[in-house]
Design brief:
Elements lengths: L8 H11 L7 E2 L4 E2 L3 H8 L2 H12 L1 H24 L3 E3 H9 L15 H10 L3 E6 L2 E6 L4 H43 L24 H16 L3 H50 L10 E4 L13 E8 L3 E6 L5 E5 L3 E3 L7 E4 L8 E8 L4 E6 L8 E6 L3 E3 L4
Antiparallel strand pairs: 1-2, 3-5, 4-5, 6-7, 6-10, 7-8, 8-9, 11-12, 11-15, 12-13, 13-14
Helix pairs in contact: 4-5
Length: 402
């Protein structure tokens, strides 16, 4: 066998080096060095350069581990977002795509020992939607980009507008069918006619007892004579009055339709103006002073403060809040992602923390538990006295003074 034949160690090493990706267990994350086999990795770990790097890491191991963990998480989520978007994918498939880059951060250098533990961490922090099946863990990225959220909201509004338009058309068609059916019924219904007497002024007699044959013939004859003697002018006058009545009803219907169209146009303009104003006032930060919030992060105090309520005393950098707990009086410094708004009972005072009317106080009128929204009446600001329907729970919060 020659020096550079196909199965020689030299040829195998050359092919492995050209491929780029080698066994992950023979990679040193601290030194950023990839070894080809177990012997090479052992020689590297006993080298002087590696020992110096390990002494530096030993001085502050938490700092290096947290740094590698952040880099691994950021690169993994970036790969998931760019390649698959918000599709539901198998976690192993996404991980294999991520490690195909030979310069990636290895999981051995992070705080996670298994891929399942890392996937569960992403689910707990709300960065991805995860679920476990017989085939393993599945992951779905949650896009929190403001542009993507705005685009999704525009699509939902467009879909809702189309549904409203279809509903209006359906109601209009039903109304027209009712009008047409009522008119047809009125035309087909037999109208009572005025009794017509003969020229001789004969009396028409009705008998409830036994009828004689002669009387029956006479009655039929008289009724037939009265039908033939109807006046042509009276019939024309009746038709003219019916036509005028139909014209009046038609004009009334046109006037009602015009009023309804004008009302619909005003409602659309008002709704569009409110949506534009709500879009201008909606921001990423919502936490503000003087409101009651709830702690929703289980890691705060090892779960001792989970779902505890507190009052926001101060806000730093728009997102960091200083919260004083109501029960224990402890003061915590938390991010707004670790907090949740508190919805009081109907009739109490709330504050609008995001969206239309941001910063204004209002009175909570009603709560829709199924739709996760509420109905409020504004007590201050330019919209004072107006009633807002279907306000989301995240946009209002209980006031601390209440």
């Amino acid at each position: 066998m020659g020096k550079h034949d196909f199965l020689t160690p030299k040829a195998i090493g050359i092919r492995m080096k050209a491929k780029g990706l080698q066994k992950l267990r023979w990679f040193c994350q601290v030194c950023q060095k990839q070894c080809r086999d177990e012997n090479g990795f052992k020689c590297h770990t006993t080298s002087e350069a590696h020992q110096r790097q390990m002494l530096i890491v030993a001085n502050n191991p938490d700092k290096f581990m947290s740094g590698y963990s952040e880099m691994f998480e950021e690169a993994f989520l970036e790969n998931l977002r760019r390649r698959h978007g918000t599709k539901r994918m198998r976690a192993t498939h996404v991980y294999n795509e991520y490690i195909s880059d030979k310069l990636h951060v290895h999981m051995n250098a992070t705080q996670w020992t298994t891929l399942g533990g890392f996937v569960q961490y992403l689910g707990r922090t709300g960065k991805c939607v995860v679920d476990e099946t017989e085939k393993g863990w599945h992951i779905q990225y949650i896009d929190r980009d403001p542009k993507a959220i705005a685009r999704q909201q525009e699509l939902e509004k467009k879909k809702k507008a189309e549904l409203d338009h279809e509903e209006r058309n359906r109601l209009f068609i039903e109304r027209q069918l009712k009008i047409a059916s009522g008119k047809e019924g009125a035309d087909t219904q037999q109208q009572p006619t005025k009794l017509r007497r003969g020229e001789n002024g004969e009396k028409i007699k009705m008998s409830l007892g036994m009828k004689k044959e002669g009387a029956k013939k006479e009655t039929v004859k008289t009724a037939a004579f009265g039908a033939k003697g109807s006046s042509v002018f009276e019939q024309e006058g009746k038709e003219r009055r019916e036509a005028e009545s139909e014209d009046k009803h038609s004009n009334k219907r046109h006037a009602v339709d015009a009023i309804m169209e004008e009302n619909e146009r005003r409602k659309k303009e008002n709704s569009r103006r409110l949506e534009e104003e709500s879009k201008r006032q909606r921001k990423e930060n919502w936490v503000t002073t003087g409101i009651v919030v709830k702690v929703m992060n289980k890691k705060v105090g090892d779960g001792a403060y989970y779902k505890c309520k507190g009052v926001v005393k101060d806000v730093e950098d728009k997102f960091c809040a200083t919260v004083e707990l109501l029960d224990s009086g402890d003061v915590l410094r938390l991010d707004q992602d670790d907090l949740e708004t508190v919805i009081p009972k109907p009739g109490r005072k709330v504050k609008i923390v995001n969206g239309l009317g941001r910063g204004c106080t209002a009175k909570l009128l009603d709560i829709s538990v199924d739709d996760f929204c509420a109905r409020i009446r504004i007590d201050s600001g330019s919209h004072r006295g107006e009633v807002f329907d279907r306000v989301e729970y995240e946009d209002i919060c209980r006031v601390a003074d209440e």
